[in-house]
Please model this.
Amino acid sequence: MYWLSFAEYCRERFGRRLYRAALDAHMTCPNRDGRISYGGCLFCSGSGSGEFAVSYNGQKLTRDDLLYNRQEVPDGDFIAYFQAYTNTYDSPDRLFRLFDSALADPLFAGISIATRPDCIPEEVMQVLITLKERYPGKFIWIELGLQTVHERTTRMIRRGYPLEVYDGCVKRLHENGFEVITHMIIGLPGETKEDILATAAHLNSVRTEGVKMHLLYYTDDSDLGKLYMQAPDDFHVLTKEEYVDILTECIAVLDPDIVLHRMTGDGDGEHLLAPLWSKDKRSVLNAVRHMMKVKGYVQGCRANEYI
Ligand code: SF4
Model:
């Protein structure tokens, strides 16, 4: 085992594999509604990064609704993944109703809420705490879109909050007993391999429980993609070899108990401009496994170098 994969973690913790069911609860985002900005993060698609998400307003869902063609998955083996936009950016009453409905649904083992660290005010934290106590047999995970620790990149991608806000949010979530999954992006414009490894090392220092590592996609429905279409030569799109090299170094830096929920994504095929090699997810994963073997790496083997 070269890294602690989500599948492996599920087997250890739950004794079975769980499957995320991506939901779109029709939120918006302070980076889109004008509270911070109107344009959104530079890389974000028009659907708030929820391309494959199922519309959800608290209704009872069935397997047929989940678009996964996973008829063989039994009740209780799905995770309600609130994916599109910022899923704590609504009134506490609506959030309570939505999350309560999903947690009460026997289809779901728990819920995973994707949000921004500047969007969990105290009233929302209280909603989460109440629900955690109400459903002791289920879990509530919080997914935070950090992407990078570097302020210059943060400004360029228009993330809209400083690193301290992320650090403080992780601390508050931990104090209240919530596990955190942090999203980071590999390949952001201007970032070197060392910059990306510094982000991975920061995740060790805040003790995030899980990580989702994303390759930077250029899609025609994001502002980044539009800039790319105007001047593709101004951007360095990672090659598969570069991505695999950086990803394996990140895995070596991340503490061995951090769960790698995701290492390569499914860019929206219809909108994807580059890198096109990313469409072959299986080949990327095979290359990562092969490179870990060639380098003699396992997860965390270089963590001490980055303390
Ligand atoms: S990535 Fe998240 S925070 Fe950024 S614009 Fe999209 S929905 Fe908003």
